[in-house]
Amino acid sequence: MKQTLLLALGAVALLAGTAGADTVTVKGSDTMVILNQRWAEAFMAKNAGTTIQVTGGGSGTGISALINGTTDIAASSRDIKESEQEKVRDRFNALPQEIPVAKDGVAIYINEANPVKALTVEQIKGIYTGKIDNWKAVGGNDEKIILYGRENNSGTYVFVKEHVLGGKDFSPRTQTLPGTGAVVNAVSKDKRSIGYGGGAYAKGVKEVAISDGKGEALLPTEANVGSGKYALSRDLYFYLRATPTGSIKKFIDWVLSKEGQAIVTKVGYYPIAAK
Amino acid sequence: MRKSPLFTALTLLLAAAPAWAQDTAAPVTEAAAPATEAVAEAPAEGEEDLAGKITTVSERADGLDERVATLETDVKGLKKLKISGYAQGRFEARQNAFNGIDDRKEGDFKTGSGKPGGADAFYIRRARVKFAFQANDWSQFVLQPDWSRSGVSLKDAYVDLNEKWTGTQVLRFGQFNIPYGYEIEQSSSVREVPERSRWERTVFAGERDRGAALYGKVSVLRYALGVMNGTGTEDRDGNFRGVDNNFAKQFVGRAGVDTGWLVAGVSGSHNTKLIPAVKRAAAGSTSDVNYSGTLEPAEVNIAADVAGNENKQYNERAAGVYLMYFRDVPYLGGFSLKGEYNRGWTGIFASETGETKPGALKHERRAKMLGWHVLVSQFIGDRNQLAYRIDQFDPDLESRDKECHSKKHFDTEGCHFSRVTTHTVAWNFFWDGNVRLTTALESPRNTAWKDKKDLLFTEQVQYKF
Prior knowledge:
The complex is a heterodimer. Chain A is about 35% helix and about 20% strand. Chain A has helices at about 1-15, 35-45, 60-65, 80-90, 120-130, 155-165, 180-190, 220-225, 245-255, 260-265, and strands spanning about 25-30, 50-55, 75, 95-105, 105-110, 120, 145-150, 175, 195, 205, 210, 235-240. In chain A, helix 6 links the parallel strand 7 and strand 8. The termini of chain A are far apart. In chain B, about 15% of the residues lie in helices and about 40% in strands. In chain B, strands 1-2-3-4-5-6-7-9-10-11-12-13-14-15-16-17 form a 16-stranded antiparallel beta barrel. The longest helix of chain B has about 45 residues, at about 35-80.
């Protein structure tokens, strides 16, 4: 019995690894992937001993990686769900730490040739649930509306579903694409199309001013997003499974500094109050 | 589906070609018409080739459109099905199989008929695959079979109906975990030590039953109320087995709070069972209940007279409190303190053997049960977790021989049931995001028994996906 015990303990001890090299992994939101890459490049330029690895895959993918311990930081463009918090708690005996790192306004993109200038949230809901399928119903040309959206592991998808559609399902006519860049590309090529995504990707398309039905229609500018007046304002987050320490803390402190937040503006998002 | 750039370019070229030809031809007068016609004929052949090719490409693109649309529909459907699961392979070594408590018998303290001395074995403790299909936000179907050394069994098969207006209530129907305490519903894949506490393994053997339950939350408040058959899904041996009383059901539930870092509440269960027709050992059977290696007169069973007790109803009740506390310790990792304290009342108590007076087995009395445990665990970094649990279970606080608990040896009256206190230490090492290695040592103590050499060593490898 004693010999068996000692042999088994020895085998497990041999298998138990020590902490790896100074590498911080950031995984998740495709909305944030360009921002994360810019941060990583700038941080590593000043901290040669630390490697920041950035991958996308969607907010849901990032949070799943946080739960199973394969990423240090989950980048997310949506709030973490209660069920996901419980899974982190079950796995690590601790609740996930939520750190807002930037602000964004989810933009509704249409083709530059589309005459529509403003939409209400209710109209956008009607469009994406399929109740409104012709541009003339919202002040545009007599043409069928072509819908583009994101896959369901995307935080932007979840945000739009919760805050615009009120939890209802997207129309089955919605063509799902893997990233905001792909959505923008598709919308830029078809004047009948509509898409949504992070505000930093608006190139070759135009953003629609949005109203909540009560106030004036607003574009996702820094003033409107920062003040929360823009109807689809949101925070972009880093989620961690514990209080950050070591290189992870150093990286996050830098992200929240004036230097890190300056990069937010360059990429096209809006800064959180800098430390 | 977007058209390819090549197709767009070819289309534009085709559209532009007649206009180009017309522009070229526009200034020409009638006299020059034959020349225009003659000029138009030569490019017409080339245009036909080009038009033909563009038509072919267009048709192929349309075909691809249809195939992609079909694939997208299929993929969307498949994405609604989520498959997860885990498998646990174990090596167990028991210090003394003959005198030991058989932990795999849900804590009813029967031992196997093994010879004195240690025993060890490799086996598959659990191998489960969970299929969850969610077509929309309003309903979900879950199916979970299990493959283990006892065979293939069905663990979960239920439908969840999510309430649409507030999104705070879920009605579950089918076979699922009994909503009592916290330990039953904690997945075996995340549990800090290899097995649940003896209370849970005995009173709620199998952890599951068939019925319906309502789960709800209001702010930090959580509750669950269930109506179930009341016999679980496991075929339990010994005195805790019951027969489903079709005229009565088990009512079980819990209510508490979940603030994230603190989970606490109360649980309760009321069940009405029937005494099985045959539950005593047959006349002339023997059992070396004091593990002496020889049969003594008291260990030869007397024929049971249960005619008066067959199908007699009795109540089985349980009530308890539960608590889970979580805290992140900076530079170390997550800490948790968990525990339950339960009291129970069951309508029958009988030893299988040891009754020396004829007809004495007719005597039934209520047995008061006690079961509690405290478990602490600490992460060291993200990959190492240390855990300790103390677990106490007493199936009969007022045993027939009241001195049984204090006696250090077995007596001829048969002190079959007494308090068992089990200490478990465990080390969990997370190899990667899917694999966890568990090394555990369990030491049960039963003061009624002579030999306390019951150490159980477990080495488990778990793969979870």
